[in-house]
BRCA1-associated ATM activator 1 isoform X5 (Balaenoptera acutorostrata), 673 residues
Amino acid sequence: MRGPAEGRCSPQACDWPACAQKIVCHIEDSLCSIATPQVTQALNVLTTVFGHCHGLWTQGLWVRLSPLVARLLEKDPVPASHSLVDLLLSVARSSVPSSDRGLWETLAQTLSHLSPTQAGPLALGILKLQDCPQALRTQAFGVLLQPLACVLEAAAQAPGPPGLLGGAAGDPMTVDTLLCSKSACVGLLCCALAHLGLLQPLPQRPSPWPQAPLLGAAVTVLRLCSGSAAPTSDVGGRLCAILVGCGRVQRAALDFLGALSQGAGPQESVTQVFSVLLEYLMSPESSSMVLKKAFQATLRWLLSSPKTPGCCDLDPRTQLFLRELLPVLQKRLCSPCWEVRDSGLEFLTQMTRHWGGQAGFRQALLASEVPELTKQLLQDPESYVRASAVTATGQLSSWGLLAAPASPERPGAQQKSLLVELLHVLCADSEGFPRRAVMQVFTEWLRDGHADVAEDPERFVARVLQAASRDPDWEVRAQGLELALVFLGQLLGPRGSHCPCAVALPETAPPGALAQALPEAAPPGTLAQALPEAAPPGTLAQALQVLCRVQLFEFAFRALFDCDRPVAQKSCDLLLFLRAKAALCGSPQEAGDSPNVASVEATLQRWQAGEQGQPLGYLEPGAVMAVLRSIDLEGLRDTLAESSDHVEKSPQSLLQDMLAAVGVLGENEADCY
């Protein structure tokens, strides 16, 4: 049916080719089968058809098969419910609804016949449809709200103002599912919370959105799970007994609570949200995963807090919550569980990144022991924690928030000690994660003009590149090339003018904008193609002198033949870009065929052959440019862009495999060749 004549195929199945009619008859038999696997296969085939085929003939196919599909709803239980839901949503997204309005009735009947757990995915799919009758949308939203409405009713909580959530309460089938077993209750609640969380940010979500009742329901579920709720009804007591200590529901409810942070809510509801989040962060019963979710939800609510009109600082309610939160964070950074320490550090990093300049946050943080504890975690026995501590201390240092005693004579001594300590991590840590984190922090520091880096950027870059070039972790070496690119951009011109990392940036671009102009995941060759402007000859010559002194070319040339392809690609892009800039101004004077150039080329050939021992030593700018022009960087870039298994898939490799399979060639040698 999808051949050249697809556009001319009649919607009437009786006019189809014989083979197509035979297939349809087989599907009809399968849909009428008493064997669930056979029904499932037929539904899956139809789901694929309606998902990929959009000809008029699919409308005729649905007209013929829809009565058999609807007949499945008469069975108890409904067979292959998951596959049935997939099929109905696939048909609803196709061209069928424009010709068959009966599809909406079938969807409504299916919502009524499926169990609450089975109906959830169908209800979510219906609400995501662009064109759908309002009555069906209301029914679908009610299906998603019923579990939470039952929880609110059972916990003796007022369902809030009249609306969809209140109207969804009291469904007997949902109550039975919640109370029949722990697994059924947990499954239904987790699905409802997840589906509503997915629906919340969508533009086609139902309106009005019952924000306040949903906040109340999420808080109630969390309190039932923690045992702090005191339901008075029999159903509420049974629910509390089922849910208390259930980490799966706690995680789902915290995720949903975080998603609700994007909407406004009444002050009373928001106060309850912060109260239950603090309760979970303080509770010794919270598992490491629950604490991680609690930190994430807390961050989302803090960052969505409304700003006080006419004030750039945090609002009083947020500052009050911070004063309660930081002692809890301090305690969690000392947890014996490394996952908890790690989650706390990630939370601190994100808060500092967003609020490092807010006076209220700075005051509360500096009054706590959190900065000092964070610095101590650089020595943590777990590498993941050390990596997170590196990132957190890097952020704190960028905002001047590492509050530790410093001598009056040398007020910057503490900051410098952190730089030295991070360099030690880069050179000596046995695990790759902390070293990668150090390189990312150093790149940010260089990009943003960190005070200690700005004192002597040349010395800083030389030390970092020296350590990165020897690192066994390819991601550290690749990040070293990223740092080299940032440094190169800062050398070849002022901000917004002739800068290799500033494509059409305004004069008032922020400090970090220069190196952000090109995406991190730029394809090979992007750097060389993005910036055709020529730097002034004097600027380029001075920059090359500095790059030679920090031994950037030693690092880049060695990385050019790195056994890890991403490193070689980054190096190739960097050198292509530099060569393109130099070609436009023809400076500095090339060294021609001098002994220095010949020695460098010989060393590079040995490196390419795998002999990486001999260093290049100090290079003159002219020799560097001569070597750059002699290397086939374009060819190397094309080679690196090929798939890693292109050699194994080549005809030559296939023939070699055939020869190897024969073993002793003997009299068949000529034939094999």
The two ends are 46 Å apart (CA to CA). The CA atoms of residues 110 and 284 lie 44 Å apart. The mean pLDDT is 82. The longest helix spans residues 134-154.
